[in-house]
Amino acid sequence: MKIGIDLGGSHIAIGVVDSNGQIVEKKEVRILEKEKKNITEFIEKYIIENVNDFIKRYDIKTIGIAIPGTLDEKSIIKSVNLGIENYDIVKELNKKIKLPIKIKNDAKCAALAENKYGALKNYNRTLFLTLGTGIGGAVVINNELLDAGALPGMEVGHMVINKDGLLCKCGNNGCFEKYASMKALKNNLREQLNLDEKTKGQELFEMIRDNKKDASNYEIIENVVTDFIENLSIGIGNLVNLFEPEAIVIGGSFVYFEEVLLERLKNNLVNGNYLFNKKTNVIIKTAILGNEAGIIGSTLI
User: pTM for the full model?
Assistant: First the structure.
């Protein structure tokens, strides 16, 4: 057995994973704004407490952690969405957890999981995107992650798609994830509809799904979704033009909105002016493993 940890911008999920890539038991917690004030302390406490509980009850050999941002073998160099820089997470956790710990970028972990067990496994050249608090990415060629060297690269969420655009936490303006992350979609819907920030994603999904032309909020919802699809198409179109993948798989909380977003995205990419090499079809799928891909993939590093 191995423990996989998905340390996201808004949650921590910890799972016990068997040799077949199945999650046997899982615990999860949201990271609220109050926790972000002492984020490393919160991370350490939650992980140490729950990992040691699992160690008592399962024969655990190793631990993997999927983390958004730029990492080296033991440290978080910079994680914009967690607000962390130069944090030796492995050293700190090993003070209380006496097992080997490996870390890797979360999108790359999810790509490894989808490549071995999920939606990428029948293709040789693929693009994986995770849409959640931010946007992460990975390219897999012949079962190997594209290697950018000392720094992991594939920070697709920080491609600039609007040079005079919104200020990103990374310090640049107009980053892809400021317009096409699921956080951006949800926040824009809440803002335009004057909804409380606690309005859940499921409620927003239902609003999009049930939106009718004669509804009072039809134009507001339609405009927000149309802008989101256009911005997502710009970013994905750039990546397709670079890598020409056989298939694209999207994970993160996008999977919960598949019914209302996926076909619109496909049609927009094919019929819009985004692709250098025009196509009659673009293979885009949602991640089979859903939000559990990070947990599973972190046990494969």
Answer: 0.85
